[in-house]
Design brief:
The chain is mainly α. The chain has 2 domains: 7-74, Rna Polymerase Sigma Factor, Chain: A (Orthogonal Bundle), CATH 1.10.1740; 116-197, Winged helix-like DNA-binding domain superfamily/Winged helix DNA-binding domain (Arc Repressor Mutant, subunit A, Orthogonal Bundle). The protein has helices spanning 14-22, 26-47, 51-68, 77-102, 116-126, 128-134, 138-149, 154-161, 165-186. Helix 4 packs across helix 8 (154-161), helix 7 packs across helix 9 and helix 8 crosses helix 9. The longest helix has 26 residues, at 77-102. The relative contact order is 0.10. Pfam families: Sigma70_r2, Sigma70_r4_2. One of its GO terms (biological process) is DNA-templated transcription initiation. GO terms for molecular function: DNA binding; sigma factor activity. Belongs to the sigma-70 factor family. ECF subfamily.
């Protein structure tokens, strides 16, 4: 799924804006925000049903951009922003879950139920899949997180990770094979994962 971007926000001068942000230019940050906040908000909203969390994550994303613009190393700015936003969303969810585990439970009225995507993403981070992901090498894990969890295309993932597209495809295929083996070790089944080939 490609990011939704406003018309005319191609990103040809995004890198120049980011360099200005790295030098402390608040106007450049404002332009970058105006150019990218809309599609980032849309994508975050697809992953999280709570508008307050989405607003908080979007704000945290641009605070991170302000603080770490110097760390950007030539990858496509939109992909880099999405990786930051997706990681902020995961971090926020983890903090919320820790808080909920320590809070006194209230009766559930059915409102605010997590979306199907939120339940899947939580399983990816905390269930058997999360444990299997942690067993992969960092380069394989990063590719899977970028392409599967963060929803980046192969091209966006290549830009965000600073590696060629062919390397993304190769690592993704290898990561899926290793993940399948790890999941079978964690939760053996009578049938192979994914059915018969």
């Amino acid at each position: 799924m490609r990011p939704i971007r406003p018309a005319g926000a191609g990103g040809g001068d995004d890198a120049a804006l980011l360099r200005s942000v790295a030098r402390g230019d608040t106007d450049a940050l404002s332009v970058l925000y105006d150019r990218h906040a809309g599609w980032l908000h849309t994508r975050l909203s697809r992953r999280c049903a709570d508008p307050e969390t989405v607003r908080e994550v979007l704000q945290d994303t641009f605070v991170t951009v302000w603080r770490s613009a110097r760390a950007h190393r030539g990858s496509e700015v939109g992909g880099w922003l999405w990786v930051i936003a997706a990681r902020r969303l995961v971090d926020t969810r983890r903090a919320q879950e820790r808080h909920e585990r320590t809070a006194v439970p209230e009766p559930w009225d059915g409102a605010g139920a997590p979306s199907a995507e939120e339940r899947v993403l939580a399983g990816l981070e905390y269930g058997d899949v999360g444990a299997a992901l942690e067993g992969l090498s960092p380069e394989l894990r990063d590719v899977l997180r970028a392409t599967v969890i963060d929803g980046l295309t192969t091209r966006e993932a290549a830009h965000a990770l600073g590696i060629p597209e062919g390397t993304v495809k190769t690592r993704a295929a290898r990561a899926r094979r290793e993940l399948r083996v790890a999941l079978e070790r964690l939760a053996p089944r009578t049938r192979p994962l994914g059915g018969t080939a």
